[in-house]
Known about the structure:
- Belongs to the IFRD family.
- It comes from Amazona collaria.
- Helix content is about 70%, strand content about 0%.
- The chain is mainly alpha-helical.
- The longest helix has about 30 residues, at about 370-400.
Amino acid sequence: MSHCSGFSDPASFTEDGPEIDEEATQEDLEYKLKGFIDLTLDKSAKTRQAALESLKNAFSSKILYEFIMERRMTLTDSIERCIKKGKSDEQCAAAGLACLLCVQMGSGIESEEIFKTLGPVLKKIVCDGTASIQARQACATCLGICCFIVTDDITELYSTMECLENIFTKAYQKDRDTNGVSSTHNTVLHISALLAWTLLLTICPMNEVKKKIEMHLHKLPSLLSCDDLNMRIAAGETLALLFELARETDADFFYEDMELLTEKLRALATDGNKHRAKVDKRKQRSVFRDVLRAVEERDFPTEMVKFGPERMYIDCWVKKQTYDTFKDILGSGMQYHLQSNDFLRNVFELGPPVMLDAATLKTMKISRFERHLYNSAAFKARTKARSKCRDKRADVGEFF
């Protein structure tokens, strides 16, 4: 998305160059997007996929509500056709575009119409054992996100969660010949279905949350033994979220196998197995230290997210799960959408968008000369720090 990076910051304008005609730029963008929408119907699969990817880049980096509103049915039909008739890569691109379409439209009637059309198609692909794993994975993610954004119908919410449960619960089944969970090529699908289900759990009524906790809390720890790092992390973070929700519903919540679970989590938080890559070990230890704190001490390490002049604090697992999900979909456009997208601002309780005029934005941007001085100072500091480390290594090396 590097060629669209300028869209991701509303303050990204040329300070020293001529003024940009925003209206002409918008018209030019819309003209290109109309062309991409037409190309989603092209006979060539490569052309259709390229058009879908270009639309995804634009939708993730700009707010295009009015443009999309006029063409939402055309876009929905194109996405439906690409998911039904396309091959794996095209289906993945179409599912990703469907997510962004709902993010752009928010939780209104128009989005409900989109989901009514695409929901059954997505469920069919997710449950289709003959479809590619990548397509099923993308559709599972899309199904969870679109349902989270759109549905006010509790029946539809439960139906979607049941569809996702039918997928990831297959990961509970252990291989009889081994002590751990059997690793299959379906693991990526199980991970996506689990994360999508967890996202939907955060908007369930409390009585349903209790049922799901009773159903899954004693089974999820088995996934901590999976060979796949991402599955272990997904299972760990889901456990932390379930404990958080359980304690919200019942302050005296008691888990029978707490000692066994904390032993597993502590082992993962201090894992030093040599057969695992160093990067994987670091990532795993970092995640499971936080999960262990959540389960044992009811603690969450607060994170701060900066976007424009605003700050948002992520102070619980529910908020982290929601933020991570939308960040994966929006990529580098996440900050821009947090500033300007009404739906996302409502989800994170940020209030209406902060309106800043051009003069205020200009005062917030540092000059090119100041930026150059800052970068030079940072470069010198890094060089000095690295030089000291290298000197130490050189000294140590002389003794061997």
